[in-house]
Amino acid sequence: MIDLHTHLLPGVDDGAGTLAEAVAMARLAAADGVTTIVATPHRNPWSYRADRADAERRLEEVRRACQCEGIAVRLLLGGESYIAPDLPEQLETGLALTINGSRYLLIEWPLAEYPPYSDQVIFELQVRGVIPVVAHAERYRFIQQDLRGLARQVERGVLVQVTASSLLGEFGPRTRRASEDLLTRGLAHLIASDSHGPERRAPVLSRARARAAELVGEERARALVEDVPRAIINDERVDLPPPVLPKPRPFWAFWRAG
Ligand SMILES: [Fe+2]
Fold first, then answer.
1. CATH class (in words) of the domain with range 2-239
2. Could you report the per-residue pLDDT of 88-116, keeping only the tens digit for each?
3. Protein residues within 5 Å, CB atom, of ion ligand 1
């Protein structure tokens, strides 16, 4: 399996604090059947903004330590960018880091509200040939309330990541239900851990994969943790069936939004 979204890079954000923690994450992942981990530190003007070389150096330290300890896992670099009007420029300055240097960029929104400039930013990224991958889509309130906005983005080529622990109910029932809806409606393209440490959202995928298999079958579950993330790190096209669009909710079903 391939874990495309982790905060394994030590000492740069709210993820692994130390090299030892990063190695502990890699060990847990390898034991769970994860063969490739992408370190996707938060890359924002107000957080970790050192250049790519700094990130590569830190990752190389983790690679060497893993090698010494016999942990067989491939470590790649990416980043997680907060949506911002200047995100296209952040790609040019090197603040925004695509996944393994591919055309795919992991982006996140504020959890409570969809910023009005998002459509324009996503369009500008796509014009530049960049394919946005929406991080932990099931956790946004506006998506939990209505999937149609995300479905439109997906129809325009945006990819969607669901977080493993959401599917297992660790963020509560509403987020769990949203993650299930995304999967069953064909609105989720990959599952990743978004691990922030050995204990904080552990970097494991097998239980979530098993849950996904119950919902959408073994083949789709494999695509979510293997085929799609592999295509992304290899910078290949991802061809996906169109999503099943939710129908407008009838007025008398308002309580389901609660
Ligand atoms: Fe993250």
1. alpha beta
2. 999 999 999 999 999 999 999 999 999 99
3. 80, 194
